[in-house]
Design brief:
Elements: E1 5-9, H1 13-25, E2 29-33, H2 36-44, E3 51-55, H3 63-73, E4 82-86, H4 91-97, E5 102-105, H5 110-135, H6 145-158, E6 161-169, H7 171-178, H8 180-196, E7 203-206, E8 211-217, H9 222-244, E9 253-261, H10 268-284, E10 290-292, H11 296-303, H12 309-316, E11 326-327, H13 330-347, E12 351-360, H14 366-382, E13 389-394, E14 397-403, H15 410-422, E15 430-438, E16 448-451
Parallel strand pairs: 1-2, 1-3, 3-4, 4-5, 9-10, 11-13
Antiparallel strand pairs: 6-8, 6-9, 7-8, 12-14, 12-15, 13-14, 15-16
Helix pairs in contact: 2-3, 7-8, 7-14, 8-9
């Protein structure tokens, strides 16, 4: 543990020397100043101690005035506790009212000085620890969402650089394929990668599940951003393979959107929107990269340049190569479903729709139920073909679209799915109920069959 450091401010050299000797005998490092002005100049240069022991009776500025100036100089993140020394009894109450942590009466007694100073240092450490805990994301040890926003707002208002929003590509697939325990390890590893790549004046924090904010001080260009994100991507990919294994099928990576500060403004909310828009553009164009925010006028000018066939194909390709069914959100699934119906109408093919519902026993805890639901989605996905599509309807239901399945095959397919789930070994803890029907290309009512 680092040695506590106290600055003793007293214009009387004999008192100053005596106090320093007392504190050093208790293992406390000391520095001495003869006036409040000298102390202020010292702190402005970065000499921030753990505590200031301040005499009330000094020339130029007395203890009250010096304390006010010191507190005005220090913000909430580096405020130093002040203990006043006085021989005047009527100054004690006023000193506490104006923000002193404690008062020590003169003439000084060694044991009293050591006891009061050590107590003030301990209280200060506790307060800083509580403040740190209130600002810290417990999983990653980064700033949490509210602390990140406050820090980024200050940086955007005072500094210049790049405000970046980072998002982990295909992280949901990591959770779905390997489980939330592995997903948590990946998040914690990524936080370490972020911290390892921060310079002294940079800042970062977690603003969502797999979303992070970073301020890169004095960086300006797209080339700066690309170099930074390339380092992050290399560390993240290496770390993920170390957790999951070299044969990992998921294309992991980091997408980032950034905005120049102050070129694009100082208002954090607006800057965040710009960086988020740049991130969205990266996500829509292949992921795994970074982009600086471009104003609407510049964007329109760039659009005049037509894309070639390979560029469009790259944008549309699926980067994640995961065995099993394609997992789609509601909007995308709806488009796939509508296209499939059109395709079958044209080429007279068959397809089945299946609804699977997971039923867990009431005796399970919510944590146990969540673990079973996660396994349910993974096992179902793994039992399907790459041409099948699945959509999550709720926490305990998935909807399947199974093209190319004939009526005499559907029972066999469902049996395989249920057998795969049974092999998970949950026994009586959970069962899967099935409901299915053929997609009727003649647009007549499709039949529906239920099974437990």
């Amino acid at each position: 543990m680092a040695t506590d450091w106290v600055i003793v401010v007293d214009d009387n050299r004999n008192d100053q020397r005596m106090i320093c000797d007392i504190l050093r005998s208790a293992g406390i490092r000391t520095s001495s100043m003869r006036s409040g002005k000298n102390t202020l100049d010292y702190i402005r240069k970065g000499g921030i101690p753990d505590l200031i022991l301040l005499d009330m009776d000094m020339p130029e500025a007395d203890g009250f005035e010096t304390m006010r100036l010191l507190k005005a100089e220090m913000d909430g993140e580096n405020e130093v506790p002040i203990v006043l020394m006085t021989s005047e009894e009527d100054e004690e109450a006023r000193g506490l009212e104006e923000g002193a942590m404690d008062i020590i009466r003169k003439p000084l007694e060694s044991d009293v000085v050591i006891s009061r100073v050590c107590k003030a240092l301990d209280i200060s450490r506790r307060m800083k620890r509580f403040a740190r805990n209130a600002e810290t994301d417990q999983m990653t040890d980064l700033l949490n969402k509210s602390a990140t926003e406050a820090r980024m707002e200050r940086l955007c208002d005072e500094e210049q650089g790049l405000l970046c929003i980072l998002d982990l590509d295909n992280f949901k697939n990591v959770n779905d394929t390997y489980g939330h325990d592995v997903g948590d390890k990946v998040i914690m590893m990524f936080a370490r990668v972020l911290k390892m790549n921060l310079r002294r004046d940079d800042e970062c924090g977690r603003i969502g599940g797999d979303e992070f904010a970073v301020f890169l001080k004095n960086m300006k260009t797209a080339a700066d951003l690309d170099r930074y994100i390339n380092r992050i991507n290399q560390g993240y990919e290496t770390g993920t393979k170390a957790i999951v294994g070299e044969k990992m099928k998921i294309a992991v990576g980091v997408s980032a959107g950034a905005v120049q500060v102050p070129q694009c403004g100082r208002e954090y909310t607006e800057l965040f929107r710009m960086a988020d828009q740049a991130l969205y553009d990266v996500k829509q164009n292949g992921k795994h990269g970074a982009k600086l925010y471009v104003s609407q006028e510049n964007k329109m000018a760039r659009r005049e340049k037509a894309m070639n066939l390979e560029t469009v194909t790259t944008m549309l390709q699926e980067r994640t190569q995961i065995p099993g069914a394609m997992w789609a959100g509601k909007d995308i699934f709806s488009s796939i479903y509508q296209y499939m119906v059109r395709y079958m109408n044209r080429y007279r093919n068959n397809a089945f729709r299946v609804l699977l519902t997971l039923k867990t026993t009431a005796a399970l805890t919510e944590t146990e139920k969540q673990r079973i639901r996660d396994d349910f989605r993974r096992k179902i996905r793994g039992a399907l073909r790459g041409s099948d599509v699945m959509m999550e309807c709720g926490e305990s239901q998935v909807f399947l679209l199974l093209p190319g399945i004939r009526e005499n095959d559907i029972e066999r397919v469902l049996a395989r799915i249920l057998r795969n789930w049974k092999d998970a070994g949950y026994g009586e803890q959970a069962e899967v109920q099935t409901e299915y029907g053929e997609i009727d290309i003649s647009r007549k009512a499709a039949y529906v069959h239920g099974e437990n």
